[in-house]
Amino acid sequence: MNQVLKAYNKIQKYPFGKRIFSYMVSRRAPYFKGIRPQIEELRPNFIKVNMRKRKAVHNHIQTVHAIAMCNLCEYAMGICAESSIPPHRRWIPMGMEVAYLKKATTNLSATCDLTDADWTQSDVPCFVSVKDTKGVEVMTATIKLRVTDKPPKK
């Protein structure tokens, strides 16, 4: 089990453990703090992350802003990839294709499932689905990762 999953599993033993872990990740990458993501489930190759619809993430028509949803997708993909990639490999995002399917008028949840990811390849696509509270898919994203071996430790 890698460090991300160890930390997540350890902190869940405490009250508000998921909330604390979600906040800790956002502190490491501050641009996520604005969307206030909350991890609902994390295991190897899978994550589900929630985001509340609130004024700070609204656009001019009072729906969730497209870039806030992109941040949610990148947050989900990043934690899922980091908790799934073999320990001798590393990743960096190289691009994201998004499709805005419906207006996001409620709280949202993003899921990323990397069960079929081939971490031996140099390019790994990560699919993220964003759904509203009714289960309607409002956005999809495919984030392309460049995957390489970590350099040897000195």
Structure description:
A 6-stranded antiparallel β-sheet has the order 1-2-4-5-6-3. It is an alpha+beta fold and 154 residues long. The chain has a single domain (3-149), classed as Roll (Thiol Ester Dehydrase, Chain A), CATH 3.10.129.10. A hairpin with a 4-residue loop joins strand 5 (123-132) and strand 6. The protein is globular, with a radius of gyration of 16 Å. The chain has helices at residues 3-11, 17-28, 66-82, and strands spanning 38-43, 46-51, 89-100, 108-113, 123-132, 137-149. The chain contains 3 helices and 6 strands. Helix 1 packs antiparallel against helix 2 (17-28).
Short description:
The protein has helices spanning 3-11, 17-28, 66-82; strands at 38-43, 46-51, 89-100, 108-113, 123-132, 137-149. It has 154 residues and is α+β, with helices and mostly antiparallel strands.
Please state how the strands of the largest beta sheet are arranged side by side: 1-2-4-5-6-3
Name given to the CATH architecture: Roll
What is the count of distinct domains? 1
CATH level-4 homologous superfamily? Hotdog Thioesterase
Pattern of helices and strands: HHEEHEEEE
CATH class division: Alpha Beta
Range of strand content: 25-35%
Name the helicity range. Answer: 10-25%
Name a few traits of the molecule.
single chain; 154 residues; alpha+beta; Thiol Ester Dehydrase, Chain A; 6 strands
